[in-house]
Specification:
single chain, 380 residues, alpha+beta, FAD/NAD(P)-binding domain, D-Amino Acid Oxidase, Chain A, domain 2, 2 domains, five-stranded antiparallel β-sheet
Length: 380
Amino acid sequence: MSASQIVVIGGGVVGASAAYQLTRDGLPVVLVDANDEGQATAAGAGVIAPGASLRPLPAFYPFAAKAVRAYPELLASLVDDGEAHTGYEVVGKLFVATDDAEHGRLEETLALFNRRREDGMPNLGAMEILTSEAAQQRFPPLARIAAAISIPEAARVDGALLRDALIAAARKRGARIRQCRARPIVEAGRVAGVSIDDERVACDRVVLAGGAWSADLASDLGFTLPVAPQRGQIAHLTIEGVDTSRWPILGGFGDQYVLAFGPNRIVAGATRETGSGFEVRLTAGGVHSVMSEVLRVAPGLATATLREMRIGLRPLAADGLPFLGLAPGIEGAIVATGHGPSGLQLGPYSGALAAVLARDQPVPVDLTPFAVERVTAFAR
């Protein structure tokens, strides 16, 4: 194997995107994934409309705008490579006010979303406030609500399908895919290779995209990365005889959401269990939280079939922002992780930027808010 190849550790959406972009540039790539139970990408479904978020993280929004704008080009590239099935579709979103108190906040929330759209945030469109009846026409199982904001350009994506499309396209372009555990090797302050199942694979660049397991990889390189698993439990339901493919996303002032996919699938969730550790298991409280919330907002789903509950361990950074940039003090190591609940919004773009860094090229965005060096702030 050539020492000039690049190894990507982590086969979630971030690592898969990095591998794909590198292969598009004709570079030799090895993508290594331990296939750990609880990988967040495999469990999740993504709402692609960051402008309709209420997260109190100012640095999130400019980066998210760029990430969302990059989606169409990525999807077109995947289609060219014969990988069209990602579950991505513009279906719109209903930002729901379920009671009078939430209704009282709806006008100011719409004004916030409109300011973001005017500032260039994509995936919003011409928004308006709908009555309960108009909202129910678009999402029939919806409860009688106070009102809802219609966000016509919001999109959704299936995490597992997108990951699989990226990996398949990377493989077609020459990437080598390994299902095993990997550890980076550092010699004289620079990346010298990766240990894969007791085999030393030579490389001079490694992308650390290990998701919730990234802290261990950083430890191997000699620095601390405050990324920890945050468990999410998510329900997958089906409705027989009903075409749900064009139903909008449901969201609101809380963290949970409902997405619809064709031909008749509903995804509802997800819990945000900070401090869960690596326990990949359903809990009574988690299942209750998901099901009670979805049936509160959409009681018409009470007769749907509960097909499965999935569990994902989100890689949550201590301050809520991802880590994206060069590893401190280690030449040839790139970090791309810590996206928390925004992995499917930000992950494909983050992976593409990690690929740019791996090629020693300047990135087209200021990565200062996401620099690994900011970890020193957590120790104070």
